[in-house]
Specification:
Largest sheet of chain B: none
Number of domains of chain A: 1
Strand content of chain B: under 5%
Number of helices of chain A: 3
Order of helices and strands of chain B: HHHHH
Number of domains of chain B: 2
Shape of chain A: flat
Radius of gyration of chain A: 19 Å
Number of strands of chain B: 0
Oligomer: heterodimer
Helix content of chain A: 55-70%
């Protein structure tokens, strides 16, 4: 159904392939979001958010191929890097209670 | 001939990727513990990303004829493969440091207290100052604690 309006003409079977992956990714994202809402501890929520971000990257990439315009890959690339930096920043905040100072002290080890 | 080959291999790779992704999500819901959930999520992040990205590379080269798209998908795959295990490691380390005690096979905590989890996270696998293993450090700490508690009991009996 998506293939008929494509600038690049791809066959219906190939579009079906990407639709199947998109549905699987959406189910995964729903389950991940459920864990983010349920999660008893903060780290469960953080894990769910990180996993949700990875799935978003894959979803953007697959959606670009599904509609026949793989131009959204730049956005997916940027999103994967931002997702990683965001997770590390939140973890650093909870480890040191500060984003700025954060140097390891020799006495800790 | 080549079209059918590319089509079939893409289907297979994408289906394997779907299985990895959905399995990891179900594991994240059903697993009993933070650390086991982390394990399930890591499988999803690496396995699913690898297979789906391989299928997308195949499609972009043979169907779309765009080498730039293939390079971008390859970059996404490499960034994911570098960042997802790093984030999982940092998450597990920080959770242990903040006192999240892992559960054992029988569903009971394998450490006595959150302080021991923090101690384990602070110690390296082999402490470079004393040459001790992390488990040895933990057992030594427990022994000191037991002796202290026994000493207090003795004092109480004397009084």
């Amino acid at each position: 159904m998506f293939a008929t309006s494509n600038p690049i003409c791809i066959s219906d079977e190939i579009a079906d392939m990407f639709i199947a992956v998109t549905i699987a990714l959406l189910i995964t994202m729903a389950l991940t979001l459920a864990r983010a809402l349920l999660g008893p501890t903060l780290f469960d929520r953080l894990l769910a958010v990180n996993s949700f971000g990875t799935k978003t990257v894959l979803l953007i990439a697959v959606h670009g191929f599904m509609t026949g315009r793989p131009d959204f890959l730049d956005i997916a690339l940027v999103y994967s890097l931002i997702n990683f930096i965001g997770t590390i920043a939140v973890l650093k905040f909870f480890e040191y209670d500060d984003l700025g100072s954060g140097a390891y002290q020799e006495d800790d080890f | 001939m080549l079209d059918w080959l590319v089509w079939g291999v893409s289907w297979i790779l994408l289906l394997i990727g779907c299985v990895f992704v959905v399995t990891g999500a179900v594991g994240m819901i059903r697993m009993p513990d933070l650390y086991t959930r982390l394990h399930a999520a890591s499988v999803t992040d690496t396995g699913g990303a690898i297979f789906i990205s391989l299928a997308l590379i195949l499609q972009s080269v043979f169907v779309f004829g765009s080498a730039m798209a293939a390079i971008k998908v390859l970059l996404i795959m490499f960034f994911t493969l570098f960042t997802a295990p790093t984030a999982s490691h940092a998450l597990a380390k920080t959770a242990l440091l903040c006192g999240q005690v892992p559960l054992g096979v029988d569903g009971k905590p394998i450490l006595d207290s959150p302080e021991e989890a923090t101690l384990l996270a602070r110690s390296r696998s082999v402490d470079y100052k004393s040459g001790q293993d992390a488990v040895e450090i933990l057992e030594e700490t427990r022994r000191h604690k037991r002796e202290r508690v026994q000493g207090q009991d003795d004092d109480g009996d004397d009084d």
